[in-house]
Design brief:
alpha/beta
Length: 205
């Protein structure tokens, strides 16, 4: 199958969106690319993730996705992300830098980087991919949900210091002790390489 041939973007407001087709299990990842203008307020989700630390697009260890009758090589981490987030019933519309930008065209890459903040700001939501679930990730996310909800019980909104509110919730047995397994799981979650990326604040702000 030939490599996908990118056609030039029409204007400085143009981007490419991925139409990720439904699939499940070991089925191939298939998609289509389309050009849209940010000026027309398209609806899409932007993916925030990490590229493989030691990889380069097109190296033998990378995975392929089908785009029409062509293929695009992506990193293992991106391949896993698309595999996990695709649905079995309907297509998803995404913006993903490694696919939406022609990585072999330096001028386009530079232009798209300059409007990166606008791309993420215009997305209906940002999907954060931390990697395939592992270990105690579930316990960490349960704790995060508990932190989000404890202010309804202890009126945390009156406090400007998050640590004060957390201590109140722990003392009130709403949240577990700081030396318990859920907090250790949360520390491990935030130690994932995603949170060491320079671009995280721009993509999530």
């Amino acid at each position: 199958m030939p490599l996908y041939q990118y056609s030039p973007l029409e204007s400085e407001s143009s981007i490419r969106l991925i139409r990720l087709k439904p699939g499940c299990g070991a089925e191939e990842i298939t998609c289509e690319l389309e050009h849209v203008s940010l000026d027309e307020c398209p609806r899409y989700q932007a993916l925030s993730y990490t590229w493989d630390i030691d990889g380069t697009i097109g190296s033998p260890r990378h995975f392929e996705i089908n785009c029409g009758k062509s293929q695009i090589f992506v990193t293992e981490n991106l391949f896993s992300a698309l595999h996990y987030i695709r649905t079995t019933t309907h297509e998803l519309t995404l913006w993903v830098d490694a696919v939406s930008i022609n990585q072999s065209e330096n001028l386009e890459r530079g232009q798209q980087v300059r409007i990166m903040h606008r791309i993420y700001a215009a997305a209906s939501s940002v999907v954060v991919w931390l990697g395939a679930p592992e270990g105690e990730d579930g316990a960490a996310f349960n704790l995060i949900q508990g932190i989000q909800s404890f202010d309804r019980t202890l009126n945390y909104s009156r406090s400007t210091d998050l640590s004060v509110g957390i201590n109140e919730a722990i003392e009130g047995n709403i949240l577990p002790p700081l030396d318990s397994a859920p907090w250790k799981a949360l520390a491990s979650l935030f130690d994932k390489r995603y949170f060491y990326r320079v671009w995280v604040l721009q993509e999530r702000s």
